[in-house]
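Issue 218. Parser rejects a valid record. Input:
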Amino acid sequence: MENTMKSLAPTFVPQTGPATAGSLPRLWSGRAWGFLGVAALVLFVLVPAGNLLVPPDSVFHVSNYTVTLVGKIMCYAIVALAMDLIWGYAGILSLGHGLFFALGGYAMGMYLMRSIGHDGVYKSDLPDFMVFLDWKAYPWYWSFTDNFWYCALLVVLVPGLLAFAFGFFAFRSRIKGVYFSIITQALTYAFMLLFFRNDTGFGGNNGFTDFKRILGFQVAAPGTRMALFMLTGAALIGFLCLGRAIVQSKLGRVLTAIRDAETRVMFSGYDPVYFKLFIWTLSAVICGIAGALYVPQVGIINPSEMSPANSIEIAIWTAVGGRGTLIGPVVGAAVVNLGKSWFTQALPEYWLYVLGLLFILVTLYLPRGIAGLWSKRPS
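Output the parser choked on:
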């Protein structure tokens, strides 16, 4: 019996002393830095050159469709990375992260709608959907949304404050496991129904679309499209490095211990509430930023992004790639969405069955996801 209890004991040991410079782990291994360097070369040099400099009739030309598709997948990869921070390292499974992604997208979409100006169908100061619904003025919450930096602040604050308020009460009430997942799913479903209403001032089921300009530049211009693509790539690499720094720090060790044995962490003198609240709020903010990068590249945002099915799909990306690995969810998001892009064109009626089968097969035969194929130890 004693040996059994020893085997069940968590490997977490609180470190009270200050970390010395020699004890700090490297952020990435040499091979990982090499992969990041190759990714940066492709994203910041080869793709822009192939799209802007190579003639369209050349085999080396990168089409606008490919740029948009890869940019969209990189946004999804950022969301999967955010999910991994809470699910893979803190044991918090959210089925409502699509809400934070959509809120960030709507915050940026408000600025893009204001930037249309008089170029809409009705040549009005108001967006076309407001004119159609016979609105006479902007609602109060649209104030200052003609300022890009104000909307950029909303991209961070709206998902962050909502996540903080929700997480504070949920974690203080010791809600976790399947109950927490169900509540997050109910939250995103409630917001989806709210945004579907025409009287909320967010475009109803059509959402925001037909964007013209961003910071004075034409959204559809090749240079603008490529700038957004490169900004998304930089954000993905930056969040990867941020996530790696967190999970290798003392904070990361505490989060992992909370995931494995929360009660023992409490007995060690740590309050799990604030650690979980921090990583939960940070994850929501990252999702909001991903949504803000997604909207100008794809050209639309509507309440369907808040659907519970989308949030479940985010969890599937993370599981397929390998949770608790950081790079795994990025790969999982890319693989699943490339497959989705092909299936929804060739065999659209079978995609949901394939997605469900993929999740079952990965759970049964690849419990550590795609990342487990090349790594035998956790990241």
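Fixed in the parser; the record now loads. The longest strand covers residues 208-209.
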